[in-house]
Amino acid sequence: MTDKTHNIYADIAALTRLQYQAKEFSFKPKQPVNSVLSGKQISKLRGRGLNFEELRHYRPGDDIRSMDWKVTRRTGKPHVKVYTEERERNVYLAIDQRASMFFGSSKKMKSVVGAEVAALIAWRVIATGDRVGALVFNDHNLKVINAKRSKQHVVSLLNEVIKQNHRLKSGHVEQNPSTSFNSMLAKLGNICRHDALIIYVGDGNGRNDKSTDLLKHLRQHNEIIAVKVFDPLERKLPEMSQMLVSDGRYQIQFSSDNSKTQTEYELNLAAQLSEYTKAANKLRIPLLAIDTISPAAQQLRKAMGQANR
């Protein structure tokens, strides 16, 4: 594929090479102060390692390295700290490859950027020792890939993303976006019963009140992060005397250089974004915004509070 073609359709070789850029960001509990995953509004993400469980009297056979000398001196009796090791965590990516993602104004399609973000996260997850699985979905189908931890597994996962990505084409009429979006969430509810980290990568098209209920149910026993992929053109219309817009079936022509049209469009979009953000905050779901212009790895590092390098 040429570089220009890579901007329209994702390429497995390019997604595989992203493993070398999947660094300097993490989904572990401890986050930089300026990370979107830090702060009181966001719950601590479960990680792997040792968790303090209790403080108790020393028993013959206990590891002396676990002694709590401060408590021992204060009470006059030997005490030890007891730790339990956390289990490996399953990370599930919900990768959106619906018709609404097949859009890009100048650089890359949202669908390509979504594939890149998913690849970066998948490579990073296995590098830090957790298992990664995925639910790759389009307007009509969804494919579940069970969580495993190996490079070959990530390649297989990305090949499924490529398969669905290459089915996208202009003029394709999508089904009711709420139906496909909510079907994905319902399926996640069946797969992720508890203690998983779910990362949705897509534009959130079709989210409605039912989606909020499904997310609330998922959020009760899992952690969720939403990565919203957007194109700058979606946030501000270009000023054109004649603009033609089509959904693949119907089309409309209008003037976008009219100030009233611009204002109404921006107000409507602002209301949608505000609603999306409020819903995410209410459910304590971190929301990362990734555009189609800057490199995905650079944006991920910035969102996670790391310095660009």
TrEMBL record:
Signal peptide: none annotated. Residues 54-265 form the DUF58 domain. It holds the Pfam family DUF58. SUPFAM superfamilies: vWA-like. This is DUF58 domain-containing protein. The lineage of its organism: Bacteria, Pseudomonadati, Pseudomonadota, Gammaproteobacteria, Alteromonadales.
